[in-house]
Amino acid sequence: DGGITQSPKYLFRKEGQNVTLSCEQNLNHDAMYWYRQDPGQGLRLIYYSQIVNDFQKGDIAEGYSVSREKKESFPLTVTSAQKNPTAFYLCASRDSYSSYNEQFFGPGTRLTVL
Amino acid sequence: QKEVEQDPGPLSVPEGAIVSLNCTYSNSAFQYFMWYRQYSRKGPELLMYTYSSGNKEDGRFTAQVDKSSKYISLFIRDSQPSDSATYLCAMSGEYGGSQGNLIFGKGTKLSVKP
Questions:
Q1: Nearest-angstrom CA–CA distance, A71 and A55
Q2: What are the pLDDT digits (tens) for A37-87?
Q3: SS3 for A85?
Q4: Sign (positive/negative) of CA torsion B57, B58, B62, B64?
Q5: Quick one: A27 exposed, middle or buried, by C-beta within 10 A (0-12, 13-18, 19+)?
Q6: Are A73 and A23 in contact (CB under 8 A)?
Q7: Do B104 and A42 touch (CB under 8 A)?
Q8: A101: which chain B residues are within 8 Å (Cβ-Cβ)?
Q9: Which of A65, A66, A84, B70 is the most exposed place for a label (fewest CB within 10 A)?
Q10: How buried is residue A55: exposed, middle or buried, by Cβ count under 10 Å (0-12/13-18/19+)?
Q11: CA distance B100 to B70
Q12: Helix ranges, B27-70 (H)
Protein backbone atom coordinates (compact mmCIF):
# COMPACT_ATOMS: atom_id res chain seq x y z
CA ASP A 1 0.00 0.00 0.00
CA GLY A 2 1.22 3.49 -0.84
CA GLY A 3 1.34 6.05 1.90
CA ILE A 4 3.28 8.09 4.41
CA THR A 5 4.70 6.68 7.60
CA GLN A 6 5.90 8.64 10.59
CA SER A 7 7.82 7.32 13.53
CA PRO A 8 7.73 7.18 16.40
CA LYS A 9 4.07 7.77 17.23
CA TYR A 10 4.97 9.20 20.63
CA LEU A 11 8.28 10.79 21.58
CA PHE A 12 9.49 12.19 24.85
CA ARG A 13 12.38 14.62 25.04
CA LYS A 14 14.31 16.00 27.93
CA GLU A 15 15.13 19.67 27.87
CA GLY A 16 18.35 20.39 26.01
CA GLN A 17 18.13 17.30 23.80
CA ASN A 18 17.83 17.15 20.05
CA VAL A 19 15.36 14.63 18.65
CA THR A 20 14.69 13.48 15.10
CA LEU A 21 11.26 12.62 13.72
CA SER A 22 11.10 10.25 10.79
CA CYS A 23 8.93 10.66 7.70
CA GLU A 24 8.95 8.19 4.81
CA GLN A 25 6.71 8.06 1.73
CA ASN A 26 6.38 5.53 -1.08
CA LEU A 27 4.04 7.63 -3.23
CA ASN A 28 6.87 8.83 -5.49
CA HIS A 29 6.01 12.43 -4.59
CA ASP A 30 8.57 15.16 -5.11
CA ALA A 31 7.27 17.62 -2.52
CA MET A 32 7.28 16.97 1.20
CA TYR A 33 6.22 19.11 4.15
CA TRP A 34 6.47 19.32 7.93
CA TYR A 35 3.72 20.96 9.98
CA ARG A 36 3.28 21.61 13.64
CA GLN A 37 -0.21 21.46 15.17
CA ASP A 38 -1.08 22.98 18.52
CA PRO A 39 -4.59 23.12 20.02
CA GLY A 40 -6.54 25.96 18.43
CA GLN A 41 -3.64 26.87 16.11
CA GLY A 42 -4.33 24.82 13.02
CA LEU A 43 -1.39 23.61 10.93
CA ARG A 44 1.73 25.76 10.81
CA LEU A 45 4.37 25.08 8.17
CA ILE A 46 7.87 24.37 9.50
CA TYR A 47 9.84 23.34 6.41
CA TYR A 48 9.09 22.11 2.92
CA SER A 49 11.05 20.51 0.13
CA GLN A 50 10.10 20.54 -3.56
CA ILE A 51 12.98 18.33 -4.68
CA VAL A 52 15.82 16.20 -3.34
CA ASN A 53 18.70 18.16 -1.76
CA ASP A 54 16.63 21.34 -1.58
CA PHE A 55 14.34 22.69 1.13
CA GLN A 56 12.89 26.01 2.27
CA LYS A 57 11.87 27.46 5.60
CA GLY A 58 8.21 27.76 6.38
CA ASP A 59 6.54 30.12 8.82
CA ILE A 60 8.02 28.70 12.03
CA ALA A 61 11.42 27.20 11.10
CA GLU A 62 13.38 28.52 14.09
CA GLY A 63 14.66 25.69 16.27
CA TYR A 64 14.11 23.03 13.61
CA SER A 65 16.27 21.52 10.89
CA VAL A 66 15.61 19.11 8.01
CA SER A 67 17.42 17.17 5.33
CA ARG A 68 16.27 15.73 2.00
CA GLU A 69 18.90 13.28 0.84
CA LYS A 70 16.41 10.83 -0.65
CA LYS A 71 13.12 11.39 -2.42
CA GLU A 72 11.31 9.08 0.00
CA SER A 73 12.62 10.56 3.24
CA PHE A 74 12.31 13.96 4.94
CA PRO A 75 13.42 13.76 8.59
CA LEU A 76 12.82 16.66 10.98
CA THR A 77 15.18 17.44 13.86
CA VAL A 78 13.81 19.39 16.78
CA THR A 79 16.80 21.10 18.34
CA SER A 80 17.35 22.38 21.85
CA ALA A 81 16.88 25.90 20.44
CA GLN A 82 13.16 25.22 20.02
CA LYS A 83 11.78 26.64 23.26
CA ASN A 84 8.35 25.09 23.20
CA PRO A 85 8.51 21.87 21.17
CA THR A 86 5.60 20.01 22.76
CA ALA A 87 3.14 19.57 19.88
CA PHE A 88 1.72 17.19 17.30
CA TYR A 89 3.95 17.00 14.21
CA LEU A 90 2.57 16.08 10.80
CA CYS A 91 4.45 15.17 7.66
CA ALA A 92 2.82 15.47 4.24
CA SER A 93 3.69 14.93 0.59
CA ARG A 94 2.36 16.15 -2.74
CA ASP A 95 2.73 15.19 -6.38
CA SER A 96 4.21 18.39 -7.85
CA TYR A 97 3.27 17.35 -11.39
CA SER A 98 -0.35 16.57 -10.73
CA SER A 99 -3.09 19.01 -11.66
CA TYR A 100 -4.45 18.40 -8.19
CA ASN A 101 -2.84 20.16 -5.26
CA GLU A 102 -3.74 17.61 -2.63
CA GLN A 103 -1.33 16.93 0.21
CA PHE A 104 -1.31 13.47 1.75
CA PHE A 105 -0.62 13.31 5.47
CA GLY A 106 1.07 10.81 7.71
CA PRO A 107 -0.39 9.70 11.06
CA GLY A 108 1.66 12.20 13.06
CA THR A 109 4.16 12.14 15.92
CA ARG A 110 3.26 13.56 19.31
CA LEU A 111 6.33 15.09 20.96
CA THR A 112 6.34 15.87 24.65
CA VAL A 113 9.09 17.66 26.52
CA LEU A 114 9.62 16.34 30.02
CA GLN B 1 -5.96 40.04 8.70
CA LYS B 2 -5.03 36.38 8.46
CA GLU B 3 -5.07 34.81 5.02
CA VAL B 4 -7.63 32.19 6.03
CA GLU B 5 -10.18 32.57 8.82
CA GLN B 6 -12.13 29.66 10.25
CA ASP B 7 -14.32 29.58 13.34
CA PRO B 8 -12.72 26.99 15.66
CA GLY B 9 -16.00 26.09 17.35
CA PRO B 10 -16.55 23.71 19.03
CA LEU B 11 -19.78 22.95 17.23
CA SER B 12 -22.19 20.42 18.72
CA VAL B 13 -25.23 19.17 16.81
CA PRO B 14 -27.74 16.31 17.20
CA GLU B 15 -27.55 13.32 14.91
CA GLY B 16 -29.36 13.95 11.62
CA ALA B 17 -28.76 17.72 11.63
CA ILE B 18 -27.41 19.67 8.68
CA VAL B 19 -23.98 21.07 9.48
CA SER B 20 -22.50 24.17 7.85
CA LEU B 21 -18.78 24.86 8.15
CA ASN B 22 -17.23 27.98 6.67
CA CYS B 23 -13.97 29.73 5.89
CA THR B 24 -13.18 33.17 4.57
CA TYR B 25 -9.97 34.20 2.86
CA SER B 26 -8.25 37.34 1.70
CA ASN B 27 -5.96 36.24 -1.15
CA SER B 28 -7.76 36.54 -4.49
CA ALA B 29 -5.06 34.36 -6.11
CA PHE B 30 -6.36 31.21 -4.39
CA GLN B 31 -7.68 28.73 -6.95
CA TYR B 32 -7.69 25.38 -5.15
CA PHE B 33 -9.97 24.81 -2.18
CA MET B 34 -10.06 21.74 0.01
CA TRP B 35 -11.65 20.38 3.12
CA TYR B 36 -9.75 17.94 5.28
CA ARG B 37 -11.20 15.84 8.08
CA GLN B 38 -9.04 15.02 11.07
CA TYR B 39 -10.02 12.53 13.72
CA SER B 40 -8.50 12.89 17.16
CA ARG B 41 -4.76 12.09 17.24
CA LYS B 42 -4.73 11.20 13.52
CA GLY B 43 -3.40 12.85 10.39
CA PRO B 44 -5.83 14.90 8.24
CA GLU B 45 -7.44 13.19 5.25
CA LEU B 46 -8.83 14.92 2.18
CA LEU B 47 -12.62 15.07 2.18
CA MET B 48 -13.54 17.46 -0.66
CA TYR B 49 -11.60 19.23 -3.40
CA THR B 50 -12.80 22.12 -5.58
CA TYR B 51 -11.07 24.12 -8.25
CA SER B 52 -12.16 27.74 -8.65
CA SER B 53 -15.83 28.58 -7.99
CA GLY B 54 -18.86 26.35 -7.85
CA ASN B 55 -20.35 23.43 -5.98
CA LYS B 56 -19.25 19.86 -5.60
CA GLU B 57 -21.28 17.09 -4.05
CA ASP B 58 -20.15 13.72 -2.73
CA GLY B 59 -22.74 11.71 -0.87
CA ARG B 60 -23.77 13.63 2.23
CA PHE B 61 -21.09 16.28 1.71
CA THR B 62 -21.33 19.42 -0.42
CA ALA B 63 -18.53 21.93 -0.91
CA GLN B 64 -19.25 25.45 -2.17
CA VAL B 65 -16.84 28.12 -3.28
CA ASP B 66 -17.84 31.75 -3.80
CA LYS B 67 -14.73 33.53 -5.08
CA SER B 68 -16.51 36.86 -5.40
CA SER B 69 -17.13 36.84 -1.65
CA LYS B 70 -13.92 34.93 -0.82
CA TYR B 71 -16.00 32.43 1.11
CA ILE B 72 -16.08 28.63 1.11
CA SER B 73 -18.47 26.26 2.82
CA LEU B 74 -18.83 22.59 3.62
CA PHE B 75 -22.31 21.19 4.24
CA ILE B 76 -22.90 17.83 5.88
CA ARG B 77 -26.39 16.41 5.52
CA ASP B 78 -27.87 13.81 7.87
CA SER B 79 -24.88 14.15 10.18
CA GLN B 80 -23.71 11.01 11.99
CA PRO B 81 -21.70 10.49 15.19
CA SER B 82 -18.90 9.19 12.94
CA ASP B 83 -18.67 12.71 11.46
CA SER B 84 -17.35 13.96 14.81
CA ALA B 85 -13.91 15.32 13.96
CA THR B 86 -12.04 18.52 13.28
CA TYR B 87 -12.62 19.95 9.80
CA LEU B 88 -9.84 22.01 8.25
CA CYS B 89 -10.25 24.19 5.21
CA ALA B 90 -7.18 24.61 2.99
CA MET B 91 -6.45 26.59 -0.13
CA SER B 92 -3.66 27.56 -2.50
CA GLY B 93 -2.76 29.39 -5.68
CA GLU B 94 -1.32 27.68 -8.73
CA TYR B 95 0.15 24.29 -7.96
CA GLY B 96 3.77 24.96 -8.94
CA GLY B 97 6.49 25.92 -6.50
CA SER B 98 5.69 27.71 -3.26
CA GLN B 99 2.45 28.97 -4.79
CA GLY B 100 1.20 25.41 -4.43
CA ASN B 101 1.71 25.32 -0.68
CA LEU B 102 -1.55 24.98 1.18
CA ILE B 103 -2.76 27.61 3.63
CA PHE B 104 -4.89 26.04 6.35
CA GLY B 105 -7.64 27.39 8.52
CA LYS B 106 -7.42 26.66 12.23
CA GLY B 107 -10.04 23.93 11.99
CA THR B 108 -13.57 23.59 13.39
CA LYS B 109 -14.18 20.85 15.93
CA LEU B 110 -17.52 19.15 15.29
CA SER B 111 -19.34 16.85 17.66
CA VAL B 112 -22.45 14.97 16.51
CA LYS B 113 -24.48 13.66 19.44
CA PRO B 114 -26.52 10.44 19.07
A1: 12
A2: 998 788 999 999 999 999 999 999 999 999 999 999 999 999 988 889 999
A3: coil
A4: negative
A5: middle
A6: yes
A7: yes
A8: 32, 34, 92, 95, 100, 102
A9: A84
A10: buried
A11: 18
A12: none
